[in-house]
């Protein structure tokens, strides 16, 4: 069984911990709990007949006053950038974290997710579709999730794991 470490990156209160809890334990809690430092969870899955144990590092949120603690990225195989569709600033934070992660870890697998998609049709939704389309046109895959409903959550982890396995196979064959 392969083990792969992934990190959850994003601004404060975008739903990183809720996404991990939804994925690992299949539950959603309405109460907000600030992550201090890092919380580590594990989940086993099978992707393309390969058994994988994910070691999920849920990192504390970031804002303009804090920087990504790159030491947490040591040994990571991939990361999930999390943004909140009701808070446009969280996309800027996620993209800054992406830049920092790239500088530290190089060109490893990642996905960008827009969380709280269950609010997409409400007046709370504030992300600009043109900006998201521009990101996709630049080669960044944008996925949509709702930790509350569970929509898209399993698919994100499956997709990232598949990318990491493809990267792993490329490295193994060179």
From TrEMBL:
Taxonomy, superkingdom: Bacteria
Pfam families cross-referenced by the UniProt entry: Ras
One of the record's GO molecular function terms: GTP binding
InterPro entries xref list: P-loop_NTPase, Small_GTP-bd, Small_GTPase
Keywords: Nucleotide-binding
Protein name as it appears in the record: GTP-binding protein
Gene source species: Leucothrix arctica
Phylogenetic lineage: Bacteria, Pseudomonadati, Pseudomonadota, Gammaproteobacteria, Thiotrichales
